[in-house]
Specification:
Elements (H helix, E strand, L loop, with lengths): L3 E5 L6 H11 L5 E4 H11 L14 H18 L5 E4 L3 E3 L4 E3 L3 H7 L3 E6 L2 H10 L10 H20 L4 E6 L5 H14 L1 H4 L2
Parallel strand pairs: 1-3, 1-6, 2-3, 6-7
Antiparallel strand pairs: 4-5
Helix pairs in contact: 1-7, 2-3, 3-4, 5-6
The protein binds adenosine monophosphate (AMP) and magnesium ion (MG).
The site of magnesium ion has 2 residues, from helix 1.
């Protein structure tokens, strides 16, 4: 049986850091997939964008098509190896929030877990200001809070269209990282049984 863990969290929450450390510690041999990377490869192939931060500004129809193609690729990969899928519950586009895993996409991927990494808006704001590599949208703490609230709501709908359990992991400045990693490792270790 495929074993897929979807890991989400708004930009700046510390998702990549937690993921990187947890993958080193788990006994299971996960393949780490970044949904945005795969989707970006598709978008470049079709001549639609030259930078990944342009994707959320494409037409809704095009983003939907790219999403589904990407999901189908991921479902194929999950047949041979447990997958840790780094993505987003919702993506903030210029017109409104886009579901990261709309119905056909979540049904295609059918994850076992949806992990949401969260932090306080003030912590997220600070981390974003320190990350100059990305073209991040500038948001207030209030907007960050709303985005995190919306992501929880989206996760509930994803659980309805899959067998996923929802796990919320907090990542706070003072000793939060270690605990957050441990919680993720506990979930990843479950894959050992599935592919034995
Ligand atoms: P990231 O590097 O995780 O911030 O993702 C980069 C970009 O990939 C996002 O800004 C979105 O445009 C796109 N992306 C990632 N995951 C999804 C998804 N599930 N559905 C649609 N677009 C996505
Ligand atoms: Mg990231």
């Amino acid at each position: 049986m495929p074993f897929v863990v979807v890991i989400t969290g708004i930009p700046g929450v510390g998702k990549s850091t937690i993921t990187r450390i947890a993958l080193k510690r788990t006994r299971a041999r996960f393949r780490l997939i970044n949904f945005g990377d795969l989707m970006f490869q598709e978008a470049v192939k079709s001549g639609l964008v030259t930078h990944r931060d342009e994707m959320r500004k494409l037409s809704l129809k095009v983003q939907r098509e790219l999403q589904l193609k990407t999901a189908q690729k991921i479902a194929e990969m999950a047949k041979v190896q447990p997958i840790l899928l780094d993505t987003h519950c919702t993506i903030k586009t210029p017109l409104g929030y886009l579901l990261g895993l709309p119905r056909e996409v979540i049904e295609t991927i059918n994850p076992n877990f949806i992990v949401i990494i969260e932090a306080y808006p003030s912590e997220i704001l600070g981390r974003r200001l320190r990350d100059l590599k990305r073209d991040r949208d500038v948001e207030t703490e209030e907007q960050i809070k709303r985005h995190q609230d919306l992501n929880r709501a989206a996760a509930i709908t994803y659980a309805m269209y899959s067998n996923a359990l929802i796990k919320i992991i907090e990542n706070h400045e003072d000793k939060g990282l270690e605990e957050a990693v441990n919680e993720l490792v506990k979930i990843l270790d479950l894959a050992v049984r599935e592919y034995a």
